[in-house]
Design goal:
GO terms for molecular function: serine-type endopeptidase activity. The chain is an alpha+beta fold and about 300 residues long. It has four helices and 18 strands.
């Protein structure tokens, strides 16, 4: 056999392995099938840095203290005032995070190709018309320029609000982890969202905001389940015991309590195709890896 043949066989093996790893990943979104449109009608093209916006000293403050989420518990109503419910084209559902008066952060997988986004802020029970709720319609968003839907690499997007929101006790921003944020291996991290609370085709997303805590794990531990797709731009948590994110949580926040001020360290991205309760790691976009891009687009001082 010639060297060229061996090279071809090796290349095919590598591609096959990559395809198998990709099949083992499942986005944590609840999206109906839709034709992919890499740049939808509202896709923002960033041509110059945005004007500075400083939320430090105000962001990340839970207004109500409390002593997908699978294996989690109901959040205290409005304890996470930055939580946003994102409905895509009237059908799909994801989470998001309010990070400034003008911007919501979510996963690129959620909005890629979307034509209309409906954002629900200030909600605890999505099925009840709470006085605190605010619904905003928008078509403008920016996905990361290196977003790869095949591998879920750089799974981050920013949604621009048509007018600035007024902060209230139930609507307030979450702090963004800076580029110097630690890796949080072994730290207790918090996931919040309206995702499914159990596996199953007929299991619907939760009407009530849920929360769960889980420890961060190393890149190597996560790669043991998913292979080379796991890079330093991804943060994973241990979901042993069925505690973690599930479908419908995608785009929502993974946060860390930094002495009473919450930083968003991750964006819910993916889990195992075997299911949410199998105890395999859940993957998140590592926010600190994208601090510079977030500032470029939004002007947010991080």
């Amino acid at each position: 056999m010639t060297m060229k043949s061996w090279t071809l066989i090796l290349a095919m093996a590598v591609l096959s392995q990559a395809a198998e790893i990709a099949r083992n990943l499942r986005p944590r979104s609840e999206l109906f099938p839709r034709a992919p449109v890499p740049q939808g009608p509202g896709h923002i093209v960033v041509t110059e840095p945005a004007a500075p916006v400083d939320m430090r000293g105000f962001c990340g403050q839970r207004k109500f203290d409390s002593s997908r989420i699978v294996g989690g518990v109901e959040a205290v109503p409005h304890e996470f005032p930055w939580q946003v419910a994102v409905t895509i084209d009237g059908e799909g559902f994801c989470g998001g995070t309010l990070i400034s008066p003008d911007w919501v952060m979510t996963a690129a997988y959620c909005v890629d190709g979307a034509r209309q986004l409906s954002l629900l802020l200030g909600a605890h029970d999505r099925t009840v018309a709470e006085a605190s709720q605010l619904t905003i319609e928008t078509t403008e968003y920016a996905t990361h320029p290196n977003w790869n839907p095949s591998t879920l690499a750089n799974d981050i997007a920013l949604i621009r609000l048509p007018t600035p929101v007024t902060f209230t006790p139930e609507i307030a921003p979450l702090c963004i982890a800076p580029s110097t944020e630690p890796d949080h291996v072994g730290d207790t991290l918090l996931v919040s969202g309206w995702g499914k609370t159990a596996d199953g085709a007929f299991q619907s997303i939760s009407p009530i905001l849920m929360k769960v805590t889980a420890p961060g794990i190393t890149t190597a531990e996560c790669a043991a389940s998913y292979g080379d797709i796991i890079t330093d731009n991804i943060l994973c948590i241990d979901t042993t015991g069925g505690h973690g994110s599930c479908n419908g949580d995608s785009g929502g926040p993974l946060s860390f309590d930094n002495n009473g001020v919450y930083n968003q360290v991750g964006i819910v991205s993916f889990g195992s195709s075997a299911g949410c309760t199998r105890g395999l790691p859940a993957g998140f976009t590592r926010v600190s890896s994208y601090a510079e891009w977030i500032t470029l687009v939004t002007g947010l001082v991080i």
